[in-house]
Amino acid sequence: MPERLSRAPTIKSARERSQLTASEVPMFRNHLNEAMFFYQQELNSLEPKEVSGLPAAKDNAFRMAEELVNLVIDARAVA
Q: Where do the segments described as Disordered lie (predicted)?
């Protein structure tokens, strides 16, 4: 099993999220599943019987990529 990688801090409380929102700090609505980093592989190369929640992780990755593309498109429109 690969060595576990350290994670970036996550926003855990509604208070933290509220403070960041009030400060207009941009945040992703979606997140990446930790499995991709834990196993150091692409989600498509992982075995569903070895990683629980893999379909949801793939969906989250797609939605986050879509969100990132939209942010880039929006930033270009403003520039």
A: 1-22
